[in-house]
């Protein structure tokens, strides 16, 4: 399953959340498992069809190497690229391997067109049947669709075939593709920016509003809307029974945007108060320590026999579902079961397993006879 802020499991590439990559060329075939096919991460002579043209110049290039990446977002600005970089299609350029924070390029004053519309659409758990009717309708109506390549590959053919243009980038393109979507909307297009799960759960709805504000535009001007999807916590919980029916929290172990001391503090607070806990982004080669520390904190506050639902790649061909005890969780970090597409559902002191299903009582048994 594509969780709401999931890294492609095939590469475990760490998103830098501020570096941009041009990944305009869409993969020729869809992968039903949701894993992105190989992409040209430094594509040259790439064009984005936004309804207007923007000049781009390349410096320090040889006659045989043209790295101009052209965007047509309706704003006029110039960007430069070297032989080792690809320019962002949003009015700013940066190296695909740069860790420096992107700067917003065009502002609302650079656009002459009547603004179009921007919607953030949640695809849900990954498979087409998991998409809500409202999300499907919104995507069928959108002229342009913008998203992470893995999520674009999850779209049904009827949606991609009906769009005027699809713009996708591989990992590390969160800021650039969100700004691309906004620029396309400011240029007069009806644009959908997509993500798995729900746009408000470790996703790009908030970033879109921040960038709209930084451009001097308003959400009202773009008729900005959010179309919710089923978050990973709920779709994964459904696969193991009923673990989240009482008070619950979600915590991501990704420390790109939230430092690990803060994550640890939140884990302590949630674990000691008896919430059921959904853990997103639990393990990758670059954050073994985060996973180990999480297990250590949970075991500090909870019984080792506490049930934990482990759902790997929900909704994809390689889906795996297991219910284990909390004491077993540390050793699963080095297995194929736990990676960036896995969601962990940690029970509380009342959670139990019955008939191969997790059950967290809501409290009815204290009020009613049944």
TrEMBL record:
<feature type="compositionally biased region" description="Low complexity">
    <location>
        <begin position="18"/>
        <end position="64"/>
    </location>
</feature>
<dbReference type="InterPro" id="IPR014777">
    <property type="entry name" value="4pyrrole_Mease_sub1"/>
</dbReference>
<keyword id="KW-0169">Cobalamin biosynthesis</keyword>
<feature type="compositionally biased region" description="Low complexity">
    <location>
        <begin position="76"/>
        <end position="96"/>
    </location>
</feature>
<dbReference type="GO" id="GO:0009236">
    <property type="term" value="P:cobalamin biosynthetic process"/>
</dbReference>
<keyword id="KW-0949">S-adenosyl-L-methionine</keyword>
<feature type="compositionally biased region" description="Polar residues">
    <location>
        <begin position="1"/>
        <end position="12"/>
    </location>
</feature>
<feature type="domain" description="Tetrapyrrole methylase">
    <location>
        <begin position="117"/>
        <end position="329"/>
    </location>
</feature>
<dbReference type="InterPro" id="IPR035996">
    <property type="entry name" value="4pyrrol_Methylase_sf"/>
</dbReference>
<comment type="pathway">
    <text>Cofactor biosynthesis; adenosylcobalamin biosynthesis.</text>
</comment>
<protein>
    <submittedName>
        <fullName>Precorrin-3B C(17)-methyltransferase</fullName>
        <ecNumber>2.1.1.131</ecNumber>
    </submittedName>
</protein>
<dbReference type="InterPro" id="IPR014776">
    <property type="entry name" value="4pyrrole_Mease_sub2"/>
</dbReference>
<keyword id="KW-0489">Methyltransferase</keyword>
<dbReference type="GO" id="GO:0030789">
    <property type="term" value="F:precorrin-3B C17-methyltransferase activity"/>
</dbReference>
<dbReference type="InterPro" id="IPR000878">
    <property type="entry name" value="4pyrrol_Mease"/>
</dbReference>
<feature type="compositionally biased region" description="Acidic residues">
    <location>
        <begin position="97"/>
        <end position="113"/>
    </location>
</feature>
<feature type="region of interest" description="Disordered">
    <location>
        <begin position="1"/>
        <end position="113"/>
    </location>
</feature>
<dbReference type="InterPro" id="IPR051810">
    <property type="entry name" value="Precorrin_MeTrfase"/>
</dbReference>
<dbReference type="Pfam" id="PF00590">
    <property type="entry name" value="TP_methylase"/>
</dbReference>
<dbReference type="InterPro" id="IPR006363">
    <property type="entry name" value="Cbl_synth_CobJ/CibH_dom"/>
</dbReference>
<keyword id="KW-0808">Transferase</keyword>
<dbReference type="GO" id="GO:0032259">
    <property type="term" value="P:methylation"/>
</dbReference>
């Amino acid at each position: 399953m594509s969780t709401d802020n999931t890294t492609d499991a095939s590469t475990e590439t760490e998103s830098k959340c501020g570096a941009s990559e041009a990944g305009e060329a869409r993969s020729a075939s869809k992968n039903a498992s949701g894993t992105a096919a190989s992409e040209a991460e430094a594509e040259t002579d790439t064009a984005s069809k936004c309804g207007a043209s923007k000049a781009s110049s390349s410096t320090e290039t040889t006659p045989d190497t043209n790295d101009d990446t052209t965007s047509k977002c309706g704003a006029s600005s110039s960007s430069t690229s070297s032989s080792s970089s690809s320019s962002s299609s949003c009015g700013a350029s940066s190296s695909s391997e740069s860790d420096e924070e992107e700067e917003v390029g065009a502002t609302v004053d650079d656009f002459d067109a009547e603004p179009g519309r921007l919607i953030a659409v949640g695809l849900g758990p990954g498979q087409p049947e998991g998409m809500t009717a409202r999300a499907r309708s919104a995507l069928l109506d959108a002229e342009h669709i913008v998203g992470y390549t893995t999520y674009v590959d999850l779209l049904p053919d009827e949606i991609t075939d009906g769009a005027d243009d699809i713009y996708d980038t591989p990992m590390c393109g969160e800021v650039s593709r969100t700004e691309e979507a906004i620029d396309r909307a400011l240029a007069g297009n009806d644009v959908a920016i997509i993500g798995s799960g729900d746009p408000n759960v470790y996703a790009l709805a908030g970033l879109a509003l921040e960038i709209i504000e930084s451009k001097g535009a308003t959400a009202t001007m773009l008729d900005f809307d959010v179309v919710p999807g089923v978050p990973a916590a709920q779709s994964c919980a459904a696969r193991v029974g009923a673990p989240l029916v009482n008070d619950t929290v979600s915590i991501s172990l990704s420390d790109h945007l939230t430092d690990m001391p803060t994550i640890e503090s939140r884990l302590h607070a949630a674990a000691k108060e008896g919430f059921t806990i959904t853990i997103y982004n639990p393990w990758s080669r670059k954050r073994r320590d985060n996973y180990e520390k999480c297990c250590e904190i949970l075991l500090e506050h909870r019984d080792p026999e506490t049930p934990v639902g482990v759902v790997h790649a929900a909704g994809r061909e390689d889906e795996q579902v297991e219910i284990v005890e909390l004491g077993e969780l540390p050793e699963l970090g080095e297995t194929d079961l736990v990676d960036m597409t896995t969601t962990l559902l940690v029970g509380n002191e009342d959670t139990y397993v019955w008939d191969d299903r997790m059950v967290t009582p809501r409290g009815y048994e204290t009020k009613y006879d049944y």
